[in-house]
Amino acid sequence: MKKNWIILVFLFLPVIIFTVTVDTLFILHTTDIHGHLLPYDYFNDEPSDRGLAKIFTKVQEYRAEYNNVLLIDSGDLIQGTPLTYYFNMIEPEVPNPMILAMNTMNYDAFTVGNHDIEQGIAVYTRLEKQSEFPWLSANSCLDDGSTFYSPYKIIEKNGIKIGILGLTTPGIPMWLDESLYPGITWKDMVETARIYTDSLLSETDILLGSFHSGFDENEGLEKCKLMGVPVDNASGLVAEKVPGFDVIFGGHSHRIVPQNKITISSDETLKINSGCHGINLGVVRIIYQIDDQEVTILEKSGWVEPVNNIEPSDELLALSKPYHQKILKYIRKNIGTLTDTLSGENSRFEDTPLMELINNAQMDFTDADISFAACFKPELKIPPGDIKIKDIYNMYPYENYLYVVEMTGKQIKDFLEYSARYYIWDGNEISANLTMKGYNCDMAEGISYTVDVTQKVGKRIKDIIITATGEPLDISKEYKVAMNSYRASGGGGHMGAAKASQAKVIFKSSKEMRNILADYIIELGGIKLEIDNNWHIEK
Known about the structure:
Strand content: 25-35%
Shape: globular
Distance between the termini: 69 Å
């Protein structure tokens, strides 16, 4: 039996009767699903304990028990697995499985994330049209003063009006080329929230924020300053500086908030982020009172529920089966052979065959003088034998393109100096700088160089030699440098630190890096584990 708590208080007065109703609203939250629809790991070709199919079972339990239930998502849905890539790019003409699933789950609203935009305007506009729920982003601003996406959604449920304001991280220009979001300016989140809150507060009884942005404004702040964009992770700033939000649902950071259940009985904004990859369901419970048509919130609680021990929804399993079978065939396709184990271990601390392979593929595809690339997965281990498409996804999990930019020798050195912040030297041992994401430590090919970790940050790169000529790097000369689209667009802050944010882009691939890498391996007939030891760490 569904629970609907109602308390009626009748005061017998000469004409007036006052009615007080106490009720409960549940808002269920997902974010950063990144293509994890089924409890299956397509990278390793094995079952997993996550995904929307498991979350839907939990959602159905809440709907069966309670009358007032909303379901929202805070972005980064349509990117991240072979499933999303295949049906975004290879077979785009069929109904998209992620949107089919969310339609089936009856989502009430979806806020757009940066990785959704990364798929390109053809993909995200097509998928929005397939959606039976609104796509929100109040700070996706156009030159005429309108917004590309709806800024908010007002939902009437059981006698109350609930407003949902959507905001997207304005850090998008740091990572994505403008061609992916033509005409859109991603405005500051705090400023945008202030524009809408007064009118929303007058129209609604409960105000929610669904933001694709983390709560820690200091995370990524240095890069934002380098690139001249508003604060990337500004959900906490909105909660602090813009009064009126009852709950703010965050995303983007993949960080769970709160770690333990929290209950608030004041006007303080409740903050929650359910994590990523369909591992958890975020739950908010709002107990409110309706007194003569005026709504008063009595209590707000928020917590995160893991779904690892939950059975997946039979309905979503059946709906997804033909898509799943097609992806299994796709990821198991052979493209070459491997004679020895290919490992990511130590790839950030020494030259390895993995990084040699990626950089050489980039240089082979372009006529670049120099190539920059990072190790995404140090835990990578591909055993000898057939190389399959799933192995390429493990080597290169991101949907980047390949760019060539013109950089001076000084900019190249400064770029490497910025990467070399990754190393911590305590006088005896080298360790990783935990304040820096490992995928922001780039290694180069086309040059030889030394990283002297005994020197202070900014003075560590020395003895840079152009491999092809044997000549020292000319600080004033311009070179053609290959790097992925994320890095060339400012991702990681390298180009800003090297004062190369305005560097001329002279080539953009139409192929994604994974396809470039796969074609290179097919051309070679497999992976040859070779290194030239063109760089090393000195201590």
